[in-house]
Amino acid sequence: MAGTGGSSTLRRCLEVLRDARNDNEQFAALLLVTKAVRAGEVDAKTRRQIFDAIGFTFPTRLLASGKPPPGCPDYTFRALGLTLLACFCTDPELAAHSQVLNKIPTFNDILLSPCDPDSTSMVDDVYQCLSAVMATSRGPRELVTKGTVSALCQAYVNGSYGSDRALALLLGLLAVAEEKCWQRDAPHLLAVLSKLSEDFLQTEDMTKFELCKVLPHFIPLSPPLTQDPQGSECLHRLYKGLANILGSKLSQSQRDPALKLAACLVQAYGSEWIPAGSAGSKFLALLVNLACVEVRLTLEEPDPLEAEGKKEVVTACYVLIEMGIQECLREEKPLLEEVQKMQLMRIMEEAFGAVIFYLRQVKQEELQDPFIFASVRILGAWMAEETSSLKQEICELLPFLVLYAKRFFKEGSSAGSPSQPELVSKEGSGLPQDALRFLLPGFCHLTAEDRPRDILISEGAPALLCEYFLHQWEVLTSKPGSLTPLTSTEMSLQTMCGIFLNLVVTAPDLIRRDKTFSCLMDTLLKSLPLLLPQKGHLALAANIATLGLMMARILAGSTALQGTQSTKEFFGAAISFLSQAHTAQTEPGSDSLTLAVSPAYMSAWADISELWFLGMQALAGCIPLFPWLPQAMLQARWLEGVSELLTHVAAASVDFELIAAFQGVLVELARASKPCRDVILSHHGREWANLYGMAALEQCLSEQ
């Protein structure tokens, strides 16, 4: 702040500015004002007085002025104008003013203009203005749309005066508007990444580790760098730089940022940035190994996460470990050799032992911590793939996992609308209420085994899963007129169908006595007729049809299944799903017809064939339990379809399992309904039953 003498001088200057009769008087007063501003002799009150005296008019005129006073450099007026604007921009209200925002193109031009040693103050003032603008609510959007990202990139790449400030501003803009920045200025940002990656590879001092902290901000999820030659070259330099770092002896403060950079690359591109071959496989194994060691060293400590930044490092290690799991399971063009896979699985098992140990220490008041969620999520990834190891420890942790998933699902579903379930941060971790999604595949494996299934049932997991199924179904159907293509939601529904199928087979009494399953049955009845006509949802339809048929056998006596409209519509849709799976087709170079999977089913058949056979078996089991079902199958002309198929195709093209599936349903229909038996006989049923070796059907048809 100015002293008393300085303040009085400034006041006199402001009076001159207000009352000046010509440009020379104004210019002299302005020089004194800007001199005071540059010297830092202006407090907030005085700054406001200056603005009230001259407003934006003077700075605007100065920026546009051409010829300077005699003996002054060409940029004199512009420099004065920028100094005043920089002064005004220290007031957030003025920094957000449209008169400042419309100067952004001018600021950009100055950054891109040659800067001699005498005009560096202009560049300093521009950076001060841009920094102030970025701190306002509208600022980042205005800077991006008015071309500042491009100007900053060029200033940095060219090594212009103040390039370090250009980089800092870029980091700020990418933090709040990454997607828009890359959409508008990908080539310029790529040039910055190219320079950073080159520096990262070449430098041999502590700068290398500082760059580890900067580089993640320049790794875009879109557009993918792997699809651009310059981007691919950047990724290769980052790979080589990280290989050099992580292959050396490092301190904790050096290793942590390197692991975080590697995790950022994995999050964006999986293992695509790691080259195939011996060097690449060794690097990948090293990455996962280091991550596992870090997890163990940290989580096995008495107070594991007290050190600042530890949670971020361990979370980064989780990303690397998840890649390790995926690479160990990868069969097509694997990066790892079999020996490396076996070694890594053992090391990862030890790391997950530490994760389980940590989660068992978690207190109720800590459950909101996002790090707990990250730990549960990575454990879910391990449980989804590795079903034999740590079984005892996982069983002991199941009560906690069910409690955790239940608490945050209940809180999340009551707080948020069902149409917005997939709120996922850039770090790839969903909101805590979606933790259950990551545990579902593991629960699917565990419900097939006695002990973990008993624990899950005793902890109330089936009721929770039924609620979650209803919620996810609501999410899938929340868009009016059609099903939304939400892959993770649909996958969750399919996995839950798998869990419920396990329970139907292994714990039918639970299905009968737990009222939640009656509610689930009701949803299945209504959902299949809606789902089946929709394109692209065949796998989910197969799951729901099969689960519904299997549950209908157990709940046949319930009110919901007593010939209601929704029941009949469900069975109609299930019959349609099962009947349309096969067709007769001509073999190339032959006139004979063979039985084949229908074209509409072909792409999903590998995933749904087992469900189809199980569905046929369940349908056969339902026929004696629902007296109206044979009539429904007559109306659907299912018998005529099967008869036509088996009559026209070459018998050798129908495998034994398929014959057994058809025979199971045909026998039940012939036993339960005389009209069905008559239709079979009238369509040469005895002949093709004999042809296909359907002994049970032949016997049934021969009985009076």
Automatic annotation (TrEMBL):
InterPro entries found in the cross-reference section: ARM-type_fold, Neurochondrin
Entry-linked Pfam families: Neurochondrin
One annotated Gene Ontology cellular component of this protein: dendrite
BP GO annotations: neuron projection development; regulation of neuronal synaptic plasticity
Protein family (similarity comment): Belongs to the neurochondrin family.
Protein name: Neurochondrin
Organism: Melopsittacus undulatus (Budgerigar)
Lineage: Eukaryota, Metazoa, Chordata, Craniata, Vertebrata
Gene: LOC101869249
